[in-house]
Amino acid sequence: MKGFEGLQKVIHGHHSVGFMLVTGVIMVVVYFCRDDTGTRFDINGETEVAEDYSFKDCDFFNGSWVYDNRSRPLYKEKQCSFMADDYSCEKFGRKDFEYQFWRWQPHGCDLPRFNGTALLEKLRDKRVVFVGDSLGKNHWVSLLCLIDSWILEPSHKVAEWHGSLITFRASEYNVSIDFYWEPLLVESNCDDPVNHRVRDRIIKIESIERHAKQWINADMLIFDSYTWWLEPNMTLLWGSFENPNKTIVESRRVTRYEMALKTWSNWLETHLDRNKTKIFFISLSPDHKEGGDWGKSMGQNCYNETKPIMEEGYWGKGTDTDLMRTAQSMVQDLAKKGVNVKILNITQLSQYRKDGHPSIYKRHWVPPTKLELMNPVQYADCVHWCLPGVPDVWNEILYAYLRYNR
Ligand SMILES: *[C@@H]1O[C@H](CO)[C@@H](O)[C@H](O)[C@H]1NC(C)=O
Ligand SMILES: *[C@@H]1O[C@H](CO)[C@@H](O)[C@H](O)[C@H]1NC(C)=O
Ligand SMILES: *[C@@H]1O[C@H](CO)[C@@H](O)[C@H](O)[C@H]1NC(C)=O
Ligand SMILES: *[C@@H]1O[C@H](CO)[C@@H](O)[C@H](O)[C@H]1NC(C)=O
Ligand SMILES: *[C@@H]1O[C@H](CO)[C@@H](O)[C@H](O)[C@H]1NC(C)=O
Ligand SMILES: *[C@@H]1O[C@H](CO)[C@@H](O)[C@H](O)[C@H]1NC(C)=O
Ligand SMILES: *[C@@H]1O[C@H](CO)[C@@H](O)[C@H](O)[C@H]1NC(C)=O
Ligand SMILES: *[C@@H]1O[C@H](CO)[C@@H](O)[C@H](O)[C@H]1NC(C)=O
Ligand SMILES: *[C@@H]1O[C@H](CO)[C@@H](O)[C@H](O)[C@H]1NC(C)=O
């Protein structure tokens, strides 16, 4: 997978105080103006929802994308202090900006309007951890960008990198929102947060403790793990890397995914404080690597795509529903044991967004070859998402759950 993943950007996010001060001043002006006139949210198409509003009958995940250049995007790429080079498509030359202007509209209701202050108040004195792969990081960076403009003082929002863990602190609220790199959930030879481009993946299929002790005491956990399982063959290992007592090559995806999730769920069952920790599992984030799926010629992909797929119910053939079902049944089993995990079923809504990927407009940690430059389809990233963009909606839905206690 991708090299630095922009982790280094997060670090220098908090070094570049000069830049933040400048944008800070601009933001202060903008926000004060809007607050004075009381119209700050009138420019936004949605209505504020009362605190006790109930969304219980609404399926957030069934809906459509609506072009709305009045209320979207929710923030500007350049103004986000925590933006990473992996997702800043505008910075890397993308010229069509419509991908930023789509709002997700559930059929049965409106999503509540995002309010960073309300979210931070809800999370006061709490620790939130996103655990997973680079899509989890994409999701986490999106949340920081959404919150960013609600905290005016740059020194009150700081991100720091400690090995596999990146910590974001909103000090006024005593809130931590962290990301922990753990792409396969269980331990593996891909656990280095920087050098994880490993050709042959080796998974310690029954070991999770080294990771889990970093996050088990959090107040809220948001897991994702999918793309890294798509390899044809992976080696499963028991014992230690130095001293394996058994190894097998497992070529059935669903088998090894199930084994890893079993390790994960056993850990939660025995170690989780059920009264304290809220858990979410993000359903798989679909890619757009195969243009044949939506009627392009075979061998094309998300490169050059500027519009979402509008066909309701569209489903890419490459999306592995077996893995989705595996996660779903694992979560059902956990519920029977008193551990509640909420699945955020974002697969379908993301599936429509063939236009939402960075494609060639991002930092490529390994520069493209001459051959690739001649045929950009070959190095287009059709897996991650530009920001502002699709993961903002994942967070709007997450926000709805947190704020309104669904
Ligand atoms: C989504 O909503 C539409 C319109 O309300 C409804 O016809 C359809 O059955 C729903 N789909 C699912 C999967 O619930
Ligand atoms: C928004 O989109 C409409 C329709 O495409 C266009 O006419 C209008 O100029 C756009 N407004 C802004 C602010 O970009
Ligand atoms: C955001 O939420 C805070 C705290 O609940 C509230 O005081 C504020 O009025 C909200 N802002 C807007 C613009 O809705
Ligand atoms: C900050 O939050 C942590 C829990 O995340 C808590 O243990 C600590 O007491 C809080 N600090 C203050 C000053 O309230
Ligand atoms: C996966 O493993 C099988 C059985 O060991 C082997 O036949 C196949 O060539 C391997 N596939 C790849 C892509 O390495
Ligand atoms: C290998 O070692 C692990 C941990 O020490 C142990 O749980 C497992 O049963 C062992 N497996 C075999 C086949 O000996
Ligand atoms: C969790 O809450 C339940 C009901 O409020 C209580 O009976 C139980 O003792 C609590 N468990 C722990 C570990 O605090
Ligand atoms: C991408 O779009 C450009 C401009 O519209 C066009 O020249 C080029 O042929 C397209 N490339 C592919 C691979 O579709
Ligand atoms: C998620 O949505 C898909 C359709 O978009 C559906 O097939 C699947 O059952 C849903 N999964 C869960 C856990 O709700």
Automatic annotation (TrEMBL):
Protein name: Uncharacterized protein
Organism encoding this protein: Mikania micrantha
Transmembrane segments: 12-32
Entry keywords, A to Z: Membrane, Signal-anchor, Transmembrane, Transmembrane helix
A Pfam family annotated for this UniProt entry: PMR5N
Membrane topology: Single-pass membrane protein
GO molecular function: O-acetyltransferase activity
Trichome birefringence-like C-terminal domain boundaries: 111-400
Trichome birefringence-like N-terminal domain residues: 57-110
Species lineage: Eukaryota, Viridiplantae, Streptophyta, Embryophyta, Tracheophyta
InterPro entries xref list: TBL, TBL_C, TBL_N
Family of this protein: Belongs to the PC-esterase family. TBL subfamily.
Top-level lineage group: Eukaryota
